[in-house]
UniProtKB/TrEMBL annotation:
This is ABC transporter substrate-binding protein. Residues 1-20 form the signal peptide. InterPro entries: MlaC/ttg2D (IPR008869), Tgt2/MlaC_sf (IPR042245). Keywords: Signal. It comes from Thiolapillus brandeum. It holds the Pfam family MlaC.
Length: 203
């Protein structure tokens, strides 16, 4: 199911939207999608030869819309309160790199799909909203993908979770993070994430 979650991330920022103008949280998703997908299509051959470009694209245009500290807090669950500030920062940093690399790799393999934006139920004063979509993929049943966002004090929206077919990205990692902390402590989890990310970088 974790592959489905990352498919959700890819579809969040790439695809053909079925419906027109939407409130601000949906427009955030749409405008980012238009830019990222245009870049991937135009630079497909270049990015397949040198993947560093796709990482730069994700870092610059996608990551600013996510709150990885809140996502890390949710993934760590009850253990977040036990972590020092240094540990929290390290977990957020490593978790971000993990998602960036997995997302970027998946994005390179992306093929066009249609995204249907369901009726928006949020109110103007809401501080937390869910953008609900359905992805139509190769004639199969549509995949429900929901994006959870919160509004910052400056009015900007940040994504703090993605739910694909009922499975939360944050909750998906909570089980593995919890198991690692129980075995090796919070520093052990950090070490495991660091090791994985180094391997992905080829270090």
């Amino acid at each position: 199911m974790i592959k489905g979650v990352f498919l959700g991330l890819v579809l969040l920022f790439g695809g053909t939207a079925v419906q027109a103008a939407q409130p601000q949280p949906v427009e955030l998703i749409r405008s980012t999608a238009d830019y990222v997908l245009k870049q991937v299509r135009a630079r497909k051959a270049e990015l397949e030869k040198d993947s560093s470009g796709i990482y730069d694209l994700v870092q610059q245009k996608v990551l600013p819309h996510f709150d990885f500290r809140i996502m890390s807090r949710g993934a760590l669950g009850k253990y977040w309160r036990r972590a020092t500030e240094k540990q929290k920062n390290e977990i957020a940093h490593e978790f971000q790199e993990l998602l960036v690399r997995t997302y970027a790799t998946t994005l390179l393999n992306y093929s066009d799909q249609e995204i249907e934006y369901l009726p928006y139920r949020g109110k103007p004063g809401d501080k937390r909203v869910t953008v609900s979509t359905r992805v139509h993929n190769n004639g199969g049943p549509p995949i429900p993908i929901n994006y959870r966002l919160y509004r910052q004090s400056n009015g900007a929206w940040k994504i703090y979770d993605v739910v694909v077919d009922g499975v939360s990205l944050v909750s998906n990692y909570r089980g593995s993070f919890s198991a690692e902390v129980k075995k090796h402590g919070i520093d052990g989890l950090i070490a495991t994430l660091q090791k994985h990310n180094k391997q992905q970088r080829g270090v």
